[in-house]
Protein 1
Amino acid sequence: MSQLPDVTPPGEFEVGVSQRDLWSSLWHDKMGRAGVIVLAVVLVLIGLGPVLFPFNPYAFGSSSGSLMQAPSRADWFGTTELGQNVFREFLVGGRISLYVGVTATLIAIVLGAGLGLVSGYYAGWRDTVLMRITDFVLVLPTLPLIIVLAALFGQNVIITSLVIGLTSWPQTARIIRSQVLSLRERPLIQRIRSLGANDSRIMFRHILPNVAPLIFANLALVLSGAILAQAALAFLGLGDPVQVSWGTMLHNAFDAGAMSLGAWWYFIPPGLGIVAMTLGFALIGNSMERVLNPRLKAQR
Amino acid sequence: MTNTPNVLEVKDLVVHFPGRRGEVVKAVDGVSFNIARGEILALVGESGCGKSTIAMSVMQLVVPTSGTIITGGEDLTALHGKALRQARRRIQMIFQDPFGSLDARQTVYESVVEPLIIHKAGGSADERRNRVLEALDFAHLRPPQRLAAVYPHQLSGGQRQRVAIASAIVLGPELIVADEPVSMLDVSARAGILRLMVDLRDRLGVSYMFITHDLAVAWVVADRIAVVYLGRIVEIGTSEELVAAPAHPYTKALLAVSGGDDRTGEIDPVSGEIIEVLPGETPSAAKVPPGCHFHPRCPRYAELGQPEVCRVDDPVLHLTNKSDVKSQTHEVACHFPEEPI
Amino acid sequence: MILLEINDVSIDYRTEHGTLRAVDHVSLHVDRGESVGIAGESGCGKTTLGLAVPLLLAQNATVATGSITLDGTSLVGLSEKQMDPLRWTKVAFVFQGAMNALNPVQRIDRQILEAITTHETSIDAGVAHKRVLDLLDSVGIAPARASSYPHEFSGGMRQRVMIAMSLACRPKLLIADEPTTALDVISQAQILSLLNQLRRAEDLSLILISHDLAAIKRVCDRVVVMYAGVVVESGLTAEIFGTSTTAPSAAHPYTQSLIAAHPDLHGQRVLAEGLSGHPPDLSQVIVGCRFADRCPHVMDVCQRVEPTLVTIAPGHVAACHLVDGEAS
């Protein structure tokens, strides 16, 4: 048997790039590599941080001397208006941002990819109906909607995740749908259909694996959007008041007048944290789209 | 397997599509033919003549507008759901694009075992494995154990087409519909695939509906040839009699060009004009000429002074004058077919 | 009188896996008014060789050895600025699938006009327009249809438009790469005979690159057969492929198998053997004859020594140990 080049090159876009190729291409792409590094730093901090740096969560400042203090040897990122250690708040707060981001994204991707798959595969009236629903959700003004829903159903991380997820799926749905529409015309699908396979087998065994890489690329972008959305909500005071998140930190900092007091240690870390996490995922997502570019034939 | 003498009987097949501007695209306009057990029938015509649509209709990938397609005693157009799926075991298809028809993410083994899984056939996992290896061996993919583990992108075009063939024979079908199975392969690889197809017919008794634009290939591979023009069969007969004595002017033209005998482009010594095998181009299936579809381009129509019957009446397939009484196989759809020699 | 001389040309591609020599020390020439076919299958280097003449090779390809001389001018090593005026006016190229390269939102006559005015900047508008109509007429397209859009034409007619466009600036040499794939047989015959007519009318030299021997038979006086980057046989088309009255005299087993793969409707109704295997990987070093692992007549010496072109008959050369006396 042989490792052959094609005798008649197919010249077709193969979405079938293997996992290993994906990671190595990602690393070789400058943006992808930057994204991976940035993200790794952030994730390590929020993951291991509280373990490595166990600051006392109940240490509120007792005297006015320890409130809103600049960074010092004792408090690396200084203190809040209540005397809390900013560094600890920072390390713990990142978790909520990530949690909401991931949960919301999962909802968005499952809904979006699922709808895109069904819509693209069946076409016809199902596609028309689903696409009109997608258009409707697409044009809904997200933030006002979230505000209303938060007011109605309360402010907790579950609600926030749900709401962000339910408003982020249209983008994924459209992308997956157009890829599925082109895949279904391939001789492969005609052949499997002619064998007598039923629709669910075709969709899950043949179409889904071939759009999976595209879903991953989109996932990264949706994730960065979800993190930003959560931060925005928390900043506006619509986040879970009990859980500290970076957005909540910014909210508190704003309330305490940190900006005018020049207490930069209070709002710069959470701000940078949000930027870093969002940027990391966005860079990876962008890079993956480039890696999966149709002009890159999977020529091995 | 059933025991009817014909594995396929197509009667009055019509496939009309609505066009973009409301006109009717007559892709297939009344086609009838049979394929006997163990026979290779070639459908020959240019792209767009409807031969691929006929194949798709037989496979029920395209729903015909009217007509019947009978295999194993059942009319496929009347079947649905489970009954249709059962019937599909009898007819398998091979496509033109060897790479596009295989799932790039499946190994050769997975591609070939899939029909067995879909139809819940082949017995236990071990028995299935044996059937797959046997099918690969039949398709000359050797050694089968090693080739079963590779991915399509590691194979040449010819090898991929063999995988497609293996997956088509694993269920033991009666008929294989092959749509231009070699046109995307290198010239050197074509003979191997064609030989394989004939070999499988000899060993397994499977029939073929072989679709091609290449009359010469149809001639060496097929037992009978049906020439298709604008959605209709204009001539049908054994390969030998069709090539030796074509009765329809279109077949004559195709034969002349395929054999390199046409004198297209040369100056006719008598008229001083440039010789054309056939004037103009094939009209689109949305604007099919009335009467005989071929008459606007037909040299005989011009020679005979444009007889009205060609413009008005659809010619029907009928036996040619010179068919020998015993075989009765050579039919032509023409009001003024070539006279017998 | 030699118009184009390709002398000992090798073309290398730089890939991430190393250097690949797609064309290996190939020589061929085209006389004025002559038409030469380059026959072979995908990967043999024929398209690369064809693209090298108008210097249209990809960025990662270089002409590593040899020279290409067109009408006295040496082409290898010319800069874009120097080569540009020669393209279209001295040598024109019709790509594979060219008929799909027409601008869908521009009328046909405009597109041809553009080709003319880009290269003959000082031409008079009326003269140019008349030339466009003449060109379209010469390829069988009536003046009434000149201002149509590409989608209003069939594939065959669009191909004629491409040919007309390629002749817009009266080149001396036309290189056509698979100009008739994707067309039906009857249209193919029409396009090929059109090329013949234009050749005679304009004293045009033609290089036809194709895997279809029937096309080469129709149009070409001489044929060069390539395999895995080298020339394996070359000579008069009528001799090598035979005619309706003479048998083919192809000497190289690869040429013979190519001929066998095109069934002859006048001959025996027999299916060819075909070739198993595949062409060699050109990024690896090849020892001996490149065709050895697929050749039905392979001998010991074939695995060790690469054959060189030897003359078999006047004007007919082949590179094979079966005919060069090395078999001893």
Protein 2
Amino acid sequence: MADSSDIVLDRRDVVSRILAARGDALLVTGLGAPTWDAAAVGDHPNNFYLWGGMGGAVPTALGLALAQPDRRILVLTGDGEMLMGIGSLATVAIQKPENLAIGIIDNQHYGETGMQETATAHGVDLAAMAKGAGFGLTATVRTEDDLVAAIPLIFDAPGPVFFDIKVTAVDQPMTLPEKDGLAIKHRFRAELLGDTAQK
Amino acid sequence: MAEQTGWSDEVFSILRAAGVAQVAYVPDAGHKQLINRCIADNKIKHVPLTTEEEGVALLGGAWLGGERGALLMQSSGVGNIINMLSVSNECRFPLLMIVTMRGEWGEFNPWQLPMGQATQTTLEAMGVIVLRADAPEDVPETVAAAAKLSFEAGRMVAVLIGQKVIGFKNWDK
């Protein structure tokens, strides 16, 4: 059984500090709290917010990474969302996208549905699963020092890289970004692709 | 297994001509030749999946990045993609799916029947436009029509290739 008493990192602080270092990286967020976190720390036209499609954050980012090999692609999603699409780690690993980074904001709970425990609260090790799939760089981030070391690697280390970031299970105020999927898509494509976006 | 002949090669050419750059798939015997053509082509990124719903999400991401894609699967895979179609629907991502049918014409495995018989209804319930091809000579133009609907009209489209086209599964081989 994993011990949650040593979890100290705050999810909003973690997401804020990661995204402060984003440069021109493109971001895909998984449904629920990671989408609220990204919106809370600053809306951005390079953000694609998922509000549904649980399990789809990593494969969405993979399709984007294959289409945009010269841009860094970051996924921030939750432990429950990752677990639902866990097979996608194998799909990513065999494509070996050097520009893809996955960050799990792991509070060990299903935050949107009543804070039921996920499997990571019971010792399931997401970083080990990514390593088993074949990711070259995987880590579990627990401390301030771990986080400081991880942030540059998220953006610069050859991908695919995987960081399971343990955060406290504390409710945060919900900050909701645009929820019209069509509008989110159009904005993202217009920013990335410019005049060719509608072709 | 019935020999696949011209239609797989023609479909490959149609996908190339439509600008498809990512082909995602969970294998089916009926797609064997088309998958092999995609693997052999260095301009198409071929993405084997662990489950078909990854392909729906993947192709949404591809479109976000400016690339077109196609998803190849068997009819049983349609059962695995239902909720992920919400994303394509809400974001109006083009989604081109080519589905080889089981559980219909001459099927010998009763376990294939529930999903095979529900495939078209399920897709349509989720808002997918369904086109069928039940003769080999109809497959290429049906895929071409679906590609146009998908990429130019921006819709989710599935081509169901009837089991009659694929032929009976031969378990004596």
Protein 3
Amino acid sequence: MLLVVCGLEDESALWFARRAAQSGVHCRIVTTEALSYARRFSHRLASGEVRTVVQLADGPPLADSEISGVLNRAVQAPAAAWQLAAPAERDYATMEWHAGTLSWLHALPCPVRNRPEPDCLAGPVRHPFVMVAAAHAVGLPCPEVTFDTTGPLGSADALLLAAAQAAGSQARPVHLACLDGAVPGGDLPEPVAAGIAAFAARVNADTALLGLDFFAGVGGWWFAGASPLPDLRAGGDALCRRLLDLLAPDQVPVPS
Amino acid sequence: MTVLLWGVPSEPPMAMVSRRLAALGADVLTVRPGGIGQQLDVTIGVGSGPGQAGRSVLRGTIRAGGQSVELARITGAYLRPVEPELVPELKGQAEAAPGLAHARRTQELLTGFTEAAPRVNGCRVANRLSAMASNGSKPYQAQVIVRHGFSSPDTLISTDPQEVLDFAARYRQVVYKSCSGVRSIVTAFDPVADRERLQRLRWCPVQFQERVDGPDVRVHVVGGDVFAVIVDSDAVDYRYARMQAGEDARLRAYQLDDDVAARCVALAASLDLPFAGIGLKLATDQRVVCFEVNPSPGFSWYENATGLPISLAVARWLTSRAPTATRSTRPWS
């Protein structure tokens, strides 16, 4: 069974789940909202082994051995049930659910994209300074941008704006869905394709899904940011096929 | 060369490291959380265009309390920041209040600098905030811990009261505590007295563990150096020994077995923590059980009680520039 873990309004993840189901793949969607109302969450660690059983409000229990792969796009801890609680109680429960969910998804023996990291359930998130330094190091053109304590924009937005300005007025935004260092179906300039593979390795995301933003314009493609939550629709059929090969290898592939 | 101290100057660990740095003759730049009580401005330039590959990608200055330091001069950083929302002077301020907005902006820029600087500038950082996040999930840490040859206590995190009772029945005694980074007091579980309260698990999982008998050992890892303290106490949670057992825990320096010491160093390095506090238990059944790795150890209690020179080791590590900028186990740091 392919598991898709995401927020209720993650259209990109739901699009992929629909495509998987249309392909005949047994796919189950677990929203973080539904997880918050789980009838049972059991996470056992003993003698170096981890076993988890999650019983949602409907459907059969989710056991580790029945999951062939996971598309994980959980951003928030599953704490929807606590949204009206007193802030201190809500914050405590949110952190406990974050801890349990992180450990569960991290421990799964099957392929997981993205496997969560301690500072982000959805996987490799890096500060914009780290991303720019990595992009620069691998030869992807980066805009010069200065951040200071009086600036109106956050670092990610400031980087995006600087890239747009560097690429010129005729530039077009490009969003790429990168899986394990490659962009399935992407018709990219060769230096960019090689740069993306090196970038993914450099930020320790060479076995991860990444969303990469560029502005294509003057002087080529300008790096504008990255996140662990690509719009999967940008990858189309080619990305779907690669993901299903990885996460549901014994099931029906997407017809080309 | 300057060492950045980012935290509350009067807090004991920060104060002790600051004094050691002064004794070593190091230049120090202190940045208070939220910049409270000091004029604080940060300017950071990143990136470069095509054909400028040799140019530094991290430039700028930090101005704090009348000092102005170029980022390139900062070769070490010790971090114990407080989130802006929790700084007493900023607590309760409206979202758009200028003081809170400035504090958040400063926090974001300093976080970015300390995340990127180890790789870009060769700066030594203890510890990067992203690396500290592993403490937010004890069961996640446990998975890393067992890969380094330590035992981890049998653990159940559950929302199911009956499962907890069944688990407790397997052990002489079971304790419960937070499984996140929230500080909690380790408490013995009483299957009879706590039975009704178990119904509260329904909405939030709670961590239960077998109680392991034997002395606690707290290990501070500083780079490749190890400082161990053994604890004598009857309390379930020795940090709260006076409350739980009627008297304070007694601490003394302890000579750790070489193999265990090496595993502690490797464990801290695998979590990308140059400075870590590792909680061990020398179990009576011969296991070396590891409970957690604290990424922001409040070491002052242990140093004051034993005389172990932990703060000196931290100060020396911060002022010893890394031979290369890429020694970390993680390629971006």
Protein 4
Amino acid sequence: MTLEFSQSPAFTMGVELELQLLKSHDCNLARDAADLLARLGKVKHPGQVKPEITESMIELNSSIHQRYTTLADELRTVRSVVARQAELLNLRIAGGGSHPFHQWSERRIYPTERFKHLLNLYGYLAKQFTVFGQHIHIGCPNGDDAVYLIHMLSRHIPHFIALSASSPFYQGEDTSFASSRLNAISAFPLSGTMPLVESWDEFNAYFEKMHRYKIVESMKDFYWDIRPKPEYGTVEIRVCDTPLTVDKAALLAAFAQALAHYYLIERPLEATPDLYLVYNYNRFQACRFGFAANFINPYDQQHANLGDDLIATLKKLAPHAVALESSAALNQLLDETATRRNDSSWLREQLKKSGSLNDVARLQSNLWMGKPDRA
Amino acid sequence: MPELNFLPTLPPALTPPILFGLLLLVGLLGGEVARLFALPRITGYVLVGVLFGPGGLGVLTTQLIKESRVFVDISLGLILFELGRRLDYQWLRRNRWLFATAIAESAFAFCAVYFGLRYFDYPPLHAALAAAIGIATSPAVVLLVAHELRSEGQLTERMLLLTAVNSVFAFLSVTMLLPFLHLEQQAGWAETLPQPLYVMLGSLLTGLVSSFFVLRFAAWLGKHEDRQFIMLVGMIVFTAGLARSLNLSVLVTLLSVGILARNLDFRHKLMAVQFGHGGQLFFVILFVMAGAGLRFDALPQVAFIAGMYIVLRFLGKALAILVFGRFSGLRPGAAGLLSIALLPMSGLAIVMVQDASSLYPEFGTQLSAVVLSAVAILELIGPLATQFALKQAGEAGERR
């Protein structure tokens, strides 16, 4: 079985957002995904909305975009439609990488064949997988470029984690992590990174071997942080927590697009094994400490503050942002990084102010749905 | 022979603590036996009540039932408060079709029963009163069956919301009808109006004041679930007792505390406290006593009319939900199940019948037997209907 890498226009982008479905009266996770999806099936909206592994989640997919502004506009439109339909069912929708206080054992698997199979295979891990991520797709002209881009982006995984981190609470406790969600992913046997292959042919040889061993059926079985998506002709970045707003989701996509533009046009570096020697250290640091993490640069072996490294990266991307008409987006990320505050900081502040995780969940859903709130 | 007057007389007197403990134990037993037959526990509690009640072994005498009223009030208070909190005004405001469903569900049930009874030549006022009582679904049954099944979803939420709304409508209609009964007895407006007005406004005002204190208390306590729990139980029991002492309606008072505490809590100070195991204690007592209060003696004579009463009431509710439910976002197929879930009637109806009969004995002789027989039947099959509907809808939690 050989995987064909479909061609897609370079630097196009699309996002997938896994979202939380909350009950109005206590802001715990609800079980109404099927009812909400049925309603959304009857109203017109751009993009797609799909079920996810448990009945408390939905996944929102954007269409394919060349430019940041059209992506952001579309996401805001879908946000309004989804929020409106949810309200008719007395549900709330929230962003954020984890629900602050739900109990995984109360979750129910969404009844499709694939999800039932996952429950059979993974047991409680499947229910603990009720965490919420953003996936960003970047179009690549060919498989070799995709392989190269994946290696280059792996250096930036900590940036994406720190920028998107929004899962400080898990099962009713403060985890002390900026992103606790990625810990739930690491439990899966096929999580991790793509091996250090150098071309699409080499990747295919690897995939065929894994397929022959019957370890995987398709690309879907790899839960890697970044993986190629040959049927779309894209590279998919999967480490981001779903941000608290769709605006932030669009900003993250713009960052990924600018990075892809930089690496595929300038080809400044070659992939080295060192990328993956420091990988897990850097990834853990970013999950645990966010912008304050320690970051080891695999190309010069220097230690740096992750926030500083991100600012340097964003500045380096400026000319590419101009070409992609996303300077405003990258500047916004620069400003945010300068304050060293991300969504996790916001969530912790809300807990301090309100005193209960139910309130945190309510406030984070107000934020996502674009509703003003008293106190 | 020395005097042994320190020894008690035997058997020992059935004091309230002994009674409370015994009711709990036999109720529990009945509940577990019911589970063996895949029946809801509530049905088990009710059957224990029937067995030990005045109509059965007679252990629970009418006198004892009266003395246990305090337990019943506490349980009802907790349930009504909880149900009131599920009446989310914002949801009704956003979803107009749901609002229409709620109104129609009450109105159609009333009309169906009213015209049915008129067809059988019952006098208009009596028919209206019996129909008004039939509007209400039993708050205790739907809430506890939903709890027991750990049921969640659109059908469950709507069942609780509609029950809260139809309980309010039932009480309002009955209260508004009472003056007309008086009038029929040639009393003037001056004698007839004050009492229902007092009950209605007094209950609402008490509810308002109580909910105000609940929210102030909650704000002062902060977000501590354990302390808010104690405060809530305290306020609810106190308010239920106060309503009873002031000759107000425990139903309206506590329901309005729940509704107002939910909808006036703009600053989100009150937590979503679960009553949990503590609440369960009182609910066992509530249903055992409800079972003891059931009357089956008149059933043979009025069986047909009571049956018609149940069927018409169901058809009225079902029609409203079938017509309006779809527009309010209810998934196809759920409307029928929701109508079934709303079938239960219970103690609430008995209280309303008693109120009406005490003010107007003629109603007691004519229609109360019909309503009470219908309640007796629904008290037994109602929990089963609700359980069936929630399971069939796929909203019951996984078994543990």
